[in-house]
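Forwarding these from the shared drive since the link keeps breaking.
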Amino acid sequence: MERTLVVFKPDAVQRGIVGEILSRFEKVGLKIVAVKMLSPDSAHFYHHYETIGKMVSRRGKDTFDITVEAMGEGPVIAIVLEGIEAVSLVRKMVGTTEPKAASPGTIRGDYSHISFAFANSEGLAVPNIVHASGDVEEAKEEIAHWFKDNELFEYTATHEKFTQAKRRKP
């Protein structure tokens, strides 16, 4: 079974929409295996966005600095979700990184709308609700960065027969 990291950013937490969005992941059949609220320091975000995500090389130092500053504006909620092809499923549900370009029905398309151009002109980070792991390897690294092994839980949810194609034992 695949696992992925989702981080509800300060804009989602402060708007009070975490539960509503989390329920979308649960309704599609993803299982929560870890969750915590925290206020990481700059070193934690550096490791997440640059050591793992290579943001500086992909988007530049200014974007990195603005993103880390925005992530420090309040607590975040980190969650590990588990399911069949969880990484790609969550990415599809979340939508493209730029809210303005995100399709209706996606989390970013439904809960945010600001464009990169507007954010850049104002010197702001794009408030795009959540971070979602980009691929399976990144998910493994991010989960290890955000959670200790003893914070990840194994259990059987009643819906797994339907959402994870598991057979009931006779």
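-- next protein --
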Amino acid sequence: MGAVQLLLIAIGGAAGALMRYGIGLAAQAGGVSFPTGTLAVNLTGAFALGFIATFLVERTTVSPELRIALTIGVLGAYTTFSTFSLETLNLLSDGEWSLALLNIIASVTGSVLLAWAGQSLARA
């Protein structure tokens, strides 16, 4: 991988991390133990990745560098399934079994469905 690609991934990653922080804060309800901020980021990230990856490959002739910057850089930093995993473990450790199960079902099912929706929209 060349220096230009790495730089574009880094720039995209910085943008994605800032987006993740801002959207996560905005979506997190005050005082609620359920991680709504992370759920919102995972679901919107799944939709965006499904749409952008499909649209760029099937509908445009953008450069591989731009595609990598958007998918690996921006969306790779934006989506946070590692945070999802830790927060789910924390809910389980706190005895919040029903919230942990809700988080797992909503995150996994919602992400797969929204990735499909993004892909379908890109192909429409």
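The chain is about 85% helix and 0% strand. The helical segments are 3-27, 36-59, 64-78, 81-93, 97-123.

- D.
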